[in-house]
Amino acid sequence: MRPQLVFCGLLLAVAANAHADQTPADWLEIAAFAGHQTDYSGVFVYQYDNHVETSNIIHLTEANGEYEKLESLDGPPREIIRHDGQFWSYRNHKMVQVGSQHERSGFPSLLPEQLSALSSNYQARLLGMERVAGYNAQVILFQPNDNLRYAHKIWVHTDSGLMLKAAVLGDRNKMVEQYAFTQLQIGGNIDRSWVKECDSMGGHGKAALEETSNDITPTHSGWVADTLPSGFKKSMEIQRRMHGKHAPVTQIVYSDGLSAISVFIEPNDEDEDDADGLSSRGAVNLYHKIMDKNLITVVGEVPPRTVMQVLDSVRYNGK
Question: 51, 78, 100, 174 — which has fewest CB within 10 A?
Answer without folding.
Answer: 174
